[in-house]
Amino acid sequence: MPPLTTSSISSPEVHTQGRGVTYGVLAYVLWGLFPAYWPLLVPAQPVEVLAHRIVWSFVMLAITVVILRRWRPFLELSGKGWFIVTAAAVLITINWGTYIYAVNTQHVVESALGYFITPLVSVALGMIFLKERLRLPQTVAIGVVIVAVIVLTIDYGRMPVISLILAGSFGVYGLLKKKVPLDAISSLTAESAVIAPIALIYLLTLGSANTFTTAGTGHTLLILSTGIITVIPLLLFGAGARLIPLTTMGMLQYLAPILQFAWGVFVMHEPMPASRWIGFALVWFALAIFTVDAVRNRRKQLLTPTE
Fold it and tell me: Are 235 and 84 in contact (CB under 8 A)?
């Protein structure tokens, strides 16, 4: 029997993590390219686009659940679980709707800001609601973000409402997801099942104003694609999350707002005065502190012997 070598032991693990990173990168790149996709659905208004996204996402997710035979968790979910799912459905609807509105009204940079600060909002919510203790670097990072929001408020002449709604809704959404005993696909399917009937009723009440049947075949196909566009990155994210550490996936998540920010600045040519650059620089500085601390903490946990 040949002796075991370090390379023979680590090679499968390296390959597995490589696939995980690839899946994660693809998921976040697709999410990062969303600003290029939603304007294609014009002349549909943001609320109509949101309703179609909910309905067709539910259709795609339901098909996925049937193929993967994951319907049992829905039958076993308690009444309390369905209540939490309903609350999560409302929050993700607010998040999706706000983002579609932001992109279609040329507020891509402001929406990117929301997703940049989401991880820090999640940490703050964990401290408030889960009584989690913050490490000093986390506290400093949150403080820097608060300063950044103040700077950007002065720059915009108003609160960055879109950013705060996106970060707040997704942060609380993530908090609720911790309480639901469902995987990512099953959870989003349940949420879509709760809200899809309302979205469908809304679309039916639009009548001739529903662009799904009045704006041409190409437009209809684009509307249908909202389900696929929603589900594919979710499946890639779920596959990647199972293969790589949460810390790695956490660092990959910055790809999406980076791409969104770049699209807003260099493609949409949204205004970026010096004061706005200062605000974003403060946010990126806070994220650097947060990320370095997360990596160090993860390494410390791995090096600490378990009893």
Answer: no
